[in-house]
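Form 7-S
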Amino acid sequence: MSTAPPITSLLAAVTAADNAPGPYAHPDATSHPKTWTEDHEDLYPFHLTREDHDLGNVVPIGWIRPQVADFLLNHWPEEDLGERPSLEVQLDCVHFADWVVEDGTKGMDREMVRLSRYWKDNEYFAECLDGWRDELYVIYGDLKSTYFASGKAVTDSRAGRNHVFSLERAACSVPLAHLLHPLAYEGEGEEMQIWVPRRSATKATWPSKLDNSVAGGIPSGMAPFECLVKECHEEASLPERLAQRSKHLLLYHGKGLASARYIYDLQLPSQTSPDYVKLSPLDDEVESFKLMPVQEVIAILRNDPHAFKPNCGLIIIDFLVRHGFIHAENEPNYIEMVNRCHRDLSEYIAMPLRG
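Output:
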């Protein structure tokens, strides 16, 4: 009696995206978590003030990689950025200098622009900054921070009442990034088909990889659903009336550290409907779209976990779980995979507070 061949797990595709810090203590500084990466890169918590770290219950605004901390501590360019570093490196954390925090959001915005632009112009951290967008992301702080008690904070920002500063998108690998991903599909059950784009070969990041139907970062000052409508039009030629059919979920996970993804299921009208629209590129972000049968998408994820841009592969897997295509009977690592799709980042990186 022949035995069925082993099922190739989808966990490898999840692992490609899920490398945010895990709850593992650094042997020398207990505030340093470990990442999921093979080399267990040690990270510094990034706080608004030194006092925030000392309090012990203030969630960081992000995490700083050791090579960034080394630059701040040992290679600060005094001639270009001044004698006083805007960020201070301690044994157990990184935080803004007091003189920056005293100037509130205006000061943090100014100094982070100067620092990130210096890095870009002088080719530091090119693996991130080569993808420079001239687009700002919002960075959030914990309301327990001493910064909010100081009266310097702007708590009526459209971006959220705990908005502390904004930062160039390409430099947001360490602070929390906020992005959205509507996944467009047609049909139900085994007849379902998913719209899968291929990224442009000229993209600065992940060129020619398969992608989510639509995806984009949420710029500073823009609400998530407003951004969704814009991205659906710009990337896929979808009119607002169809973009508004999106059903919202929220997924936290990590890639290059931490990110919060606003996830939307977008079921499109059938091809016999007068409202039917075929997805097509409108800008230069996407090379082409293909309407793929759901089993073809699953086969690609199993056979080549790196075929999709990593965070998009994870999001599609989460979609397949929610719609019943992936379950414990056909996925050998089902429990671990699902848990890693939905890791809660709120205990170690500040989340937006609106209203």
